[in-house]
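Quick question, first post here. What does this chain look like in 3D?
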Amino acid sequence: MVITCGLLTNCATIIHGTRQDISFTSSPSGAGVIINDQNKGATPIIVNLERKNNYTVKIQLAGYLPYETNIVKKVDGWIAGNIIFGVIMGLVVDAATGGMYKLTPEQISAELKNTTVLLQKGDQIYIIVVMSADPSWEKIGSLQNLSN
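> Answer (accepted):
Ran it through. Tokens below.
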């Protein structure tokens, strides 16, 4: 493989291409995946992205806080084939096509936090209790023991 890279002009581009699959999951599933302000579908989904770009990701579902993260390009190890064999043209091609990069993370799994604390269905009211409060929540009251 290394000998082959030495004979070729763009080792990284040939070895793994200029695009990369990134998988998206969420709990609960069915959340919308928005990459660089473009809707890509609902979780679970695999999106094929160009390696030469960085991406802003938002995963959102009604009733849940949105999950936001970034996918960043990093120099991939396959570029070493061009450097070791002194193939400057290969380095230029890999840089231009994005073949010299690897996107990270390769998998994004979003745990969506419910924003609903009080839910009313018909004449019934449901209160959701959590063991630890989100620091961004505003305290509006507390339960008291009235049996004394």
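DSSP finds four helices and ten strands in the chain.
Helices lie at 2-7, 11-16, 80-84, 88-97.
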